[in-house]
Amino acid sequence: MEVNNTDMQGDHCGPDRPAHPGIFPTGEAGKSEHKPAERSVDFPVSVVLPAGGTGERTGLQTPKQFCSFLGRPLISYTTQAFERVSWIQCIVVVVAKENTDLMTDIIQRFQHRKVRVVPGGSTRHRSICNGVLALGEGEGEEQSPAADRPKVVIIHDAVRPFVEEDFLYKIAMAAKEHGAAGAIRPLVSTVIATTSEGYLDHSLERAKYRASEMPQGFTYDVIYQAYQRCTESDFEFGTECLHLALQYCGTNAKLIQGPPTLWKVTYKRDLAAAESIIKETLSQSACIITGGSAHAATLADGLQKAAEGLHMELDVIQDLMGENTGYLLKEWNFIQISVNRSGLSEVEDLLKDLEAANRALLHPPVIIWVHLRASDEPSISGTVAEPAAIMDLASAAKLRNVLLYGIQVHQSKDTERWERSVLKVAEITSALIRERSPALVGQLLQA
């Protein structure tokens, strides 16, 4: 018996994986900090996210789509990527029946909109079929009028979180024009067929084949009819939706070269890679708040220059009043510089502002309190109140999904020593923001 399967949709893994997405959506649904050119889509588009897998290959008890990093499950990141696209009307997430309540809780906890949860089937195709049928249901289980159904259905894996609007647009438009469309990637390994005894039978010419990836798009009528006409064998053993459209509807899909960011979280190491990508995306910039102090402004200027060598962009503002309130909606990292011991009250105000903006819902913001000590101010060894105060405040902030750290720096009159201290603050700040380590929350570090 030959094994000759060139559909590598489920397990594509190459040297370009994982790849960093050009722009990963980090804000709330409908509130993008990085807006690409506006896309005009004048027909209804909906999404089916099959999320019923058991995650056996990760070696974890929890299915990978429900594994969490930075306080959120993977499925929430993927849902957010689609939810932020204004022209997508509905997202159907298909989960195993036993995980319906879990998925409903995720939707409520992270305030996802546009999302509907549907019980899955025993196989991938059965689950996708359930999602497609749900999009066409009216009241009860009757088919809704054609006008109420989506024109295009995009099918995507729940464990591929790094999908961008530009590529979704290409898939949607091609699906509308051709009836079906799908992402492909070059094969990075040679595909071989083996004999039943485990010997090489033949190899395929790699240049002639492509790996089938997600997302894929279909007109509703094509994907609906494909599932109505396919066999039990297709439901039980098939994995390729484009093949069903071709075999049962005669629809030859338009294939579109996809970016390397379409990789799928398959193994345990992929979860760590996904977390690293999101951390890096969240850590590209920060906002320094000086409170109007001249000494704080001097330190902020030095930090801004030092951050250039650390590949981080720093904006300096006096406060979060007026036009500066916009930073609460677009920034994930804040550096509050205080020149007196009452500076923690400024941090408390910042925490209240973040809570009012609901900023900590999707990702944990970072606040770094930098205490700039004057030369005549007692050292930290002379008081234990300050470390205890920041630890208590950080513990309360962590319950609100905000990570609070502290750095203490001495304002030296020696120029060389001062420059070393500024560089040290910049390096510590960069490391704290990039790592976002819960273990260091509440620590008052010395620069």
Task: Give a short overview.
The chain is of the alpha/beta class and 447 residues long. The protein is 34% helix and 20% strand. A hairpin with a 5-residue loop joins strand 8 and strand 9.
Question: What does the model show?
Answer:
- With 447 residues, this protein is α/β, with parallel strands linked by helices.
- It has 13 helices and 17 strands.
- 34% of the residues lie in helices and 20% in strands.
- It has a 7-stranded mixed sheet with strand order 5-4-1-6-10-7-11, sandwiched between helices.
- The longest helix is centred in the last third of the chain and has 21 residues, at 415-435.
- The protein is elongated, with a radius of gyration of 26 Å.
Question: Helix count?
Answer: 13
In spatial order, strands of the major sheet run: 5-4-1-6-10-7-11
Reported for the largest beta sheet, the result is: 7 strands, mixed
Euclidean distance between termini CA atoms: 67 Å
DSSP strand content: 15-25%
Mean residue pLDDT:
88
Radius of gyration: 26 Å
- In total, the number of strands is 17
